[in-house]
Amino acid sequence: MKLLVRNLARTTTEHELRVLFQAHGTVTTCNLVLDQETGASKGFGFVEMPDEKEANNAINQLNQSKVANSKIRVKLAQN
């Protein structure tokens, strides 16, 4: 399942995002969306988790949680 993670602090790294979701299951890919000109985070990213149960658990546990002083939003990504 591909998850959309929004409202990330601009200082959150791809590694930190991966570690956050790995606490809830297997993560196959993790992509932080970066500005092409500056290389800075745009404040959102995508995480892919192959196990539907683990992905749903991650959504339930992490949506509206505080990470680096930002209340993140996690939901199923639209394909």
TrEMBL record:
All residue ranges annotated as the RRM domain in the record: 1-79
Pfam families found in the cross-reference section: RRM_1
Keyword terms of this UniProt record: RNA-binding
InterPro entries to which the protein is assigned, alphabetical: Euk_RNA-bind_prot, Nucleotide-bd_a/b_plait_sf, RBD_domain_sf, RRM_dom
N-terminal signal peptide: none
Protein name, UniProt field: RNA-binding protein
Protein species of origin: Vibrio porteresiae DSM 19223
